[in-house]
Amino acid sequence: METIDNVTEKELVITRIFNAPRELVFKAWGEAERLAHWWGPKGFTLGVATLEFRPGGVFHYSMTSAQGQEMWGKFVYREIEAPERLVFVTSFSNPEGEITRAFFSDTWPLEVLNVVTFTEQDGKTTMTLRGGPINATEAEQAAFEGMFGSMQQGFAGTFDQLETYLASL
Questions:
Q1: Residue 98, exposed/middle/buried by CB under 10 A (0-12, 13-18, 19+)?
Q2: Where are the alpha helices (H) located in the chain, listed in sequence order?
Q3: In this predicted structure, what is the pLDDT of residue 102?
Q4: What CATH number should be reported for the domain whose range is 12-44+79-167?
Q5: What is the pLDDT of residues 50-88, one digit of tens each?
Q6: DSSP state, 3?
Q7: Other C-beta atoms within 10 Å of 11: how many?
Q8: How many CA atoms lie within 13 A of 97 on its CB side?
């Protein structure tokens, strides 16, 4: 069982290599105009309500599908060590920024702690995202673990968009 900060259960781990320098990949996580190009599921439009890229700051956003379905989410940043590491808690939210249950599950964890690390070699950046529920019940932990495959597919699509965005620069 791996441990990151106060995550003591199984975590989701996704690693991706981008053909871009670390500083650029890191910036893509911290600037609203950059996030709008890639964050979220394929086919969704990102709306940034708030982006305070600092420890204690919030990224509050909406995602709207082509059919008009709207979802809200937020990050609360815990650590920002440019350009090496980001630590933030993600949650679903309402338009006011209050934490809500996920629309797809009554047992999805309210909060997920994510640690993203960035390393560079020969102009390419290896980005690793590690995430796991915090303050979760047993049922919430089980729901999270049961969605690993779906989350891996979702992040693959999101990171495909990040790769396309970085290649366009």
A1: exposed
A2: 22-30, 32-35, 138-146, 148-167
A3: 96
A4: 3.30.530.20
A5: 999 999 999 999 999 999 999 999 999 999 999 999 999
A6: -
A7: 22
A8: 10
- Model pTM above 0.90: yes
Decide if 37 contacts 165 (C-beta within 8 A): yes
CA nearest 129: which of 45, 25, 52? 25
Where are the domains positioned within the chain?
A: 12-44+79-167
pLDDT of residue 4: 38
Q: Which residues pair with 126 in a beta bridge?
A: 17, 119
Q: Is-contact 88 96, C-beta < 8 A?
A: no
- 8 Å CB contact between 116 and 128: yes
Return d(Cα 76, Cα 113) in angstroms, integer: 9
Quote the CA–CA distance of 59 and 166 in Å, as a whole number. Answer: 21
Mean pLDDT of successive 10-residue stretches along the chain, which has 169 residues: 43 95 98 96 94 98 96 98 98 98 96 97 96 95 93 94 97
Residues 6+ apart with CB under 8 A from 34: 27, 28, 165
